[in-house]
C-alpha cells in the first residue's frame, strides 16, 4: 500500500481532521510497512524504544486485544481511533482506552483495582520522561546538561499524586474513573505529548520541527496545526555554573510547572541557591527582590522537600501581599499541591531589620503560624499544622519547627523592568544618580530603613 492509499484510508475516517489525517496516515504507512494492516511486532519495533514497556503493552492490548480474541493485525481506523482518543478524546473515550488497555471490557460492570490504574498512570509518566530524554529537546537539554535527571522514585510519586483522588476508593467504579479523568488535566497533557510524539515518528522532519518549537517557545503549533505544550520549562541562568547541585529532578519540575499559571510555564530563571550564594538571608533578599513571580524550594534536614509559588514581585514591607494564584507544594516524601482557599490574602510577606514585626519570609497563615516561614536567621523556619490560606493544607516539613540544608529560588518569565529601564532616577547620598547593581542595593537599603517605626536609621548587618 503506497502513501496515497494510506491517505485515502485516513480520509475515510470521518472523526479525523485534515491535519490529523496527515499525521495518522504517515504513521500508519511506516508502522505497516506500506501494507493495509499493522502487525504487533512491527509496531513494537517502531515504538518500543520510545516508551515504558508497560505502556507499550497497554497500547498493544488496546489495538490487538488479549487471549483467544487477540487480533493478528489492526487496520488504520483502529490505529487512528487510539490517536484521537488519547490526544483529544472525550471522558468516555479515555475511559474506553483505560479499561481496554487493562484487559477489561468496556461493557463490564466489574470494578477496577486502584493499583492497576496507578500502574497505568506510572507507565504514562515514565514514557513522558523517556521521550524527553530520547527527543533531547532544547528544554530537556537545558536541565540535563546541569545534572538534572528523572528518577524512577519521583516518577512513581508523580503518578501517585495524579491518582491520589482514587486512593482508598478501591475497587474503582466506572463512574468514579470518569469523574477522575474529567478533572485530571495534567494526565491529559502527558497523554497528548506522548501520543503526538509517537505518531510523529513517521515524518521526522516535522517531529523535529515540533521539538524545536518547544525548545524555543515552550509551546507551539506544528505545521500540521495540532497544538501541544511541553510541561518542561526552559532553564536559564546557569550558563556560568557547569554542574549545578539542584535538589529538583525532572518529575518534580514538571509537577510544579504543570500547576503554574500557563503564562509562567515556559521559562525558569535561576535566582538563588544556598549552595552557590551562601547561607545569608540578606543575599537571598538581594537576589529575589524585583524579580517577578518565583518558585521557592527547600529541603529540610529530614529530607522533606517542599516550597511555594509566589505570583507577586517580592518586596520588603510590613504587610502580606500577592494573589490567589499562589500555592504551596510538597515534593518529597510525596507530591501534593495546596491551592488558595480565598479565605484570606496572606500569600506573601517579606521583612527585615524590624523590632516590632517578624523578620523573615512567609507564605500563608499568619505570623507565628505560617504555611511556610523562612526566618531571617538563615537556616531556620516553620510550617504550621494548619493554614487557612491554602485548601486541604498539610504540614510541609517533617516537623513544625525545622532547619533546612538547602534552598533555591527560580524566577518565572521575564523580570519586571527596573526603575532605570522605566526611565526613573534613583539617587543616593548627596543626590548622585545610581545605576546597575548599585541602584538595586540602594533601593533595598532604603526600603530597610524606611520601615522603622522610630525613624530612618541604618539597618544592622545580617
Automatic annotation (TrEMBL):
Keywords: Cytoplasm, Lysosome, Membrane. SMART domains: TLDc. One of its GO terms (cellular component) is lysosome. Residues 246-413 form the TLDc domain. InterPro entries: TLDc_dom (IPR006571). Its main location: cytoplasm. The keyword Membrane applies. Coiled coil: none annotated. It comes from the Eukaryota. One of its GO terms (biological process) is response to oxidative stress. PANTHER family: MTOR-ASSOCIATED PROTEIN MEAK7, NUCLEOLAR PROTEIN 7/ESTROGEN RECEPTOR COACTIVATOR-RELATED. This is MTOR-associated protein MEAK7. The lineage of its organism: Eukaryota, Metazoa, Ecdysozoa, Arthropoda, Hexapoda.
Amino acid at each position: 500500500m503506497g502513501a496515497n492509499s494510506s491517505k485515502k484510508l485516513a480520509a475515510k475516517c470521518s472523526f479525523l481532521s485534515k491535519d490529523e489525517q496527515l499525521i495518522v496516515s504517515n504513521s500508519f504507512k511506516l508502522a505497516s510497512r506500506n501494507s493495509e494492516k499493522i502487525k504487533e511486532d512491527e509496531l513494537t519495533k517502531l515504538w518500543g524504544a520510545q516508551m515504558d514497556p508497560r505502556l507499550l503493552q497497554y497500547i498493544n492490548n488496546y489495538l490487538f486485544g488479549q487471549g483467544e480474541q487477540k487480533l493478528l493485525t489492526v487496520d488504520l481506523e483502529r490505529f487512528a481511533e487510539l490517536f484521537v482518543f488519547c490526544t483529544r478524546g472525550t471522558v468516555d473515550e479515555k475511559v474506553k482506552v483505560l479499561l481496554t488497555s487493562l484487559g477489561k471490557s468496556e461493557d463490564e460492570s466489574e470494578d477496577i483495582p486502584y493499583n492497576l490504574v496507578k500502574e497505568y498512570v506510572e507507565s504514562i509518566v515514565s514514557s513522558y520522561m523517556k521521550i524527553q530524554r530520547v527527543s533531547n529537546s532544547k528544554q530537556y537539554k537545558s536541565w540535563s546538561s546541569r545534572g538534572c535527571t528523572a528518577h524512577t522514585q519521583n516518577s512513581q510519586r508523580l503518578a501517585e499524586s495524579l491518582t491520589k483522588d482514587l486512593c482508598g476508593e478501591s475497587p474503582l467504579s466506572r463512574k468514579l474513573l470518569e469523574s477522575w479523568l474529567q478533572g485530571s488535566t495534567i494526565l491529559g497533557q502527558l497523554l497528548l505529548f506522548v501520543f503526538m510524539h509517537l505518531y510523529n515518528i513517521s515524518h521526522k522532519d516535522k517531529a523535529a520541527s515540533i521539538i524545536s518549537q518547544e525548545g524555543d517557545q515552550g509551546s507551539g503549533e506544528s505545521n500540521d496545526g495540532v497544538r501541544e505544550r511541553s510541561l518542561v520549562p526552559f532553564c536559564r541562568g546557569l550558563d556560568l555554573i557547569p554542574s549545578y547541585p539542584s535538589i529538583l529532578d525532572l518529575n518534580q519540575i514538571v509537577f510544579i510547572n504543570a500547576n503554574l499559571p500557563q503564562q509562567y510555564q515556559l521559562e525558569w530563571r535561576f535566582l538563588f541557591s544556598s549552595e552557590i550564594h551562601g547561607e545569608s538571608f540578606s543575599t537571598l533578599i538581594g537576589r529575589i527582590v524585583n524579580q517577578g513571580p518565583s518558585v521557592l524550594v527547600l529541603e529540610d534536614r529530614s529530607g522533606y522537600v517542599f516550597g511555594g509559588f509566589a505570583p507577586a514581585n517580592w518586596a520588603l514591607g510590613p504587610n502580606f501581599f500577592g494573589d490567589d494564584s499562589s500555592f504551596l507544594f510538597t515534593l518529597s516524601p510525596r507530591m501534593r499541591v495546596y491551592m488558595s482557599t480565598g479565605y484570606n490574602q496572606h500569600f506573601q510577606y517579606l521583612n527585615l531589620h524590624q523590632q516590632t514585626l517578624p523578620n523573615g519570609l512567609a507564605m500563608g497563615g499568619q505570623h507565628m503560624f505560617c504555611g511556610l516561614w523562612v526566618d531571617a536567621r538563615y537556616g531556620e523556619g516553620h510550617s504550621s499544622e494548619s493554614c487557612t490560606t491554602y485548601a486541604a493544607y498539610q504540614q510541609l516539613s517533617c516537623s513544625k519547627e525545622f532547619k533546612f540544608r538547602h534552598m533555591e529560588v527560580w524566577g518565572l518569565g521575564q523580570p519586571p523592568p527596573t526603575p532605570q529601564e522605566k526611565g526613573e532616577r534613583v539617587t543616593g547620598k548627596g543626590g548622585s544618580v545610581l545605576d546597575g547593581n548599585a541602584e538595586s542595593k540602594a533601593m533595598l537599603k532604603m526600603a530597610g530603613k524606611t520601615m522603622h517605626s522610630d525613624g530612618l536609621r541604618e539597618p544592622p548587618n545580617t
